[in-house]
Write a structure and sequence with these properties.
Layout: H1 5-15, H2 29-132, H3 138-141, H4 146-162, H5 165-175, H6 181-199, H7 202-212, H8 218-229, H9 239-257, H10 261-286, H11 293-314, H12 323-339, H13 342-364, H14 376-388, H15 406-426, H16 432-462, H17 475-501, H18 506-547, H19 567-586, H20 590-611, H21 618-636, H22 641-654, H23 664-668, H24 678-685, H25 694-700
InterPro entries: Sec10-like, Sec10_HB, Sec10_N
Keywords: Coiled coil, Exocytosis, Transport
Protein name: Exocyst complex component 5
Amino acid sequence: EPFVADEYIERLAWRTPGGGSRGGEAFDPKRLLEEFVNHIQELQVMDERIQRKVEKLEQQCQKEAKEFAKKVQELQKSNQVAFQHFQELDEHISYVATKVCHLGDQLEGVNTPRQRAVEAQKLMKYFNEFLDGELKSDVFTNSEKIKEAADIIQKLHLIAQELPFDRLMDFCCYLLSFPGKYHDLECQLIQEFTGAQRRGEISRMREVAAVLLHFKGYSHCVDVYIKQCQEGAFLRNDIFEDAAILCQRVNKQVGEVFSNPETVLAKLIQNIFEVKLQSYVKDQLEEHRKSDAEQYLKNLYDLYTRTTNLSSKLMEFNLGTDKQTFLSKLIKSIFISYLENYIEVEIGYLKSRSAMILQRYYDSKNHQKRSIGTGGIQDLKERIRQRTNLPLGPSIDTHGETFLSQEVVVNLLQETKQAFERCHRLSDPSDLPKNAFRIFSMLVEFLCTEHIDYALETGLAGIPSSDSKNANLYFLDVVHQANTIFHLFDKQFNDHLMPLISSSPKLSECLQKKKDIIEQMEVKLDMGIDRTLNCMIGQMKHILAAEQKKTDFKPEDENNVLIQYTNACVKVCGYVRKQVEKIRNSMDGKNVDTVLMELGVRFHRLIYEHLQQYSYSCMGGMLAICDVAEYRKCAKDFKIALVLQLFDTLHALCNLLVVAPDNLKQVCSGEQLANLDKNILHSFVQLRVDYRSARLARHFS
């Protein structure tokens, strides 16, 4: 523990009797001083003793340091001597190694010609046996040494090829004495390879393949290997999966057997594509090519997709330098005859299928589709209708049928979606935008023109005139369904067509075509909505004309009016609320506010003009104010600020019908009426039955 002087003194005083540290003892300073003096003397003696011991240890340490330094110097000298000896030994070893290498080169220079001479002697010996016409050597008679015999035959064959023509003829004459030996040996080797493959002896297959590598029949050996690999490999219904499994298995084995595994594997794949797959594809497609376009296109898309997926799996294997081009050529060789006229088949099928879907729908409705004329008179009628908004021709009773079907639309979009998917997969990249545009044109023709546009035309023709009584207005249902359908059409345009044409000039063409068809539909929708609003206002006019009585606002008994608002007001407000709800359900977004604003403005104009037709007594004016208050409450359902403001102003105008003559000027200068034209104010004041009284005329002037 660290030494602390205060604690040491405290402990010493505590141990000393009379030190005053223990309770109950008297403090004795003399005794404590004496104890301190004695303890100091003991510490001095201890210090001297420890100092002598330290000096002795220092001397001993200095002596040992000198001895250690002397020993280190001696070891360094010994190390230098050992290093010199090592250098001498290294130089000697290098000298001996040089001599050995030189001697080895000399021996090799002597041995190589000797080995060649021995091999030449053996070949001459075997050549003599051929000349004699009798093969006696064990290498030719022992079937187990077929490898050595093949090597000899191959070398003799190469020698024959290097001889001049005249000597070659003599040599051939000698070989004819034992005809077909080269060919027979090839056949034996191939049979040996075949047997080893069936037995699964990889090492034996590798040995025989290495021997055959120098023979002409090596390619035949590869063909035999490929043929046997496929035996029993295609027993299931899925030929593509079988092919992938076979190639994966052969890929593991071919490197252990052949010196050029990538060439052998590529040849196997080529054989599978050109024989197995091509035959399978032809059987699947030719069956439906002329009789069933739908099944033909489905099979073509499925087979092409599965073939390309198989190609992607085969890309994992080593097939040489440009395996992508190799596999693409194989796929093209199978499908070229089917892809050349693919888009014509696609368009023909899509056209007939779409026409059938539409016709089946109209047949289910027992509807004979009317032909919408073009050119000449029809164009003139269309221009007149757009400018005047007049119904040209007789109104058609559609019995509430919109002639729009989401089921039909979904079927058309589904057929087109599948066509886009097939187009993306089966079209050449250079033809893809053009083909996609043709499919889009079919969709526009049958969905937009033949279905939506026809429904709009029929809906327009079914809108009754504005003066019809109890007219049923179904055009808003057409608007609602057309809006929903177009959202689906726009989604398919963005999801399936745009990726196919986004980087081509066809993009602007498609966008323009889409814009044109939208504008064409919007014109007809706007026209139909406008005429529908006119019909709504016409219905309100009929209600007001039938229900509103002149006595409503000028009752015979002013003191006996029990109603809060007139019956005409109740029926009009009920009718308006239904139409507002129908408009909200039929449209979305800003279109709702736009149409409701237009209806609200027309509704206000109708009520304003309607009120101007009557004279108002004091109690009748109060009833008119109640009616307008109810109309204003109905206007709140529009949730349009302008409409509510118009009815607030109308309500303020109606106050002029009941206000006291002395207060007319004050009311007219109020916040809501101050900005109105004085003629409007005057026109309302004139509706009072007491207007002609001199007092009222004087106050208003």
